[in-house]
Amino acid sequence: MTFPYRTLIAALGAFAATACSPSGPADTPEGAKSGGTKSGCLSRAYPEIGGPISLVNDKGEAVTQDTFKGHPTLIYFGFTYCPDVCPMTLVTVARAYKMLPEGIDPPQTLLISIDPERDTPEKLAEYVATSAFPDNLVGLTGTPEQVRAAAQAFIADYSRVDDPSSTAGYTMDHTSLLYLMDKDWNLKTFFTHDDTSETIAACLADVLDE
């Protein structure tokens, strides 16, 4: 590894959402391929982020990372009961895709649920069909162990938080990042809650035009 694993976890943890609400910005660790987040979106290609997944899609089919290789993939860890951050993020992505230059196709888009207790394939299928979300959005879920393993591969953290005001009795705190994987399932860059549709579209236009 190019720098301590704990340093990367701490830095990405600063981007985590608390009670499904984004936190403040943080410095990026020194292991980026160029000078950190301020030097452009391609400076966020950490080799430590990303790895194998073994999950179930919203049609009930078993999938792995090999299912999605061959095309760039944008990944988000969230859940269908998320009241604001998750849907806002997915709407932002959909708007970014519409801003892409003609001839550049958007990446395939995955929502990996960190709430498998509630997010069945059927529930995800209904959720990802929301008209304001990306047209190519696919929901993934699995056993708690499968979901945790996928999150750990992306250094994405989440936890259950009791919430008596919720009809389900709990909500989920989770890292709120968008991970862009290349066609070989290697991290190309990631986006934070500070990124807008415009900044995401501009980065994707550069990356996908390579």
From TrEMBL:
Disulfide bonds: C82-C86
Signal peptide range in chain numbering: 1-19
Gene3D superfamilies, per the entry: Glutaredoxin
Residues binding Cu cation, per UniProt: C82, C86, H174
GO MF terms, alphabetically ordered: metal ion binding
InterPro entries: SCO1/SenC, Thioredoxin-like_sf
Keyword Thylakoid: no
A Pfam family: SCO1-SenC
Domain of life: Bacteria
Presence of keyword Ribosomal protein: no
Keywords tagged on the record: Copper, Disulfide bond, Metal-binding, Signal
Family to which the UniProt record says this protein belongs: Belongs to the SCO1/2 family.
Protein name per the record: SCO1/SenC family protein
Record organism: Hyphomonas oceanitis SCH89
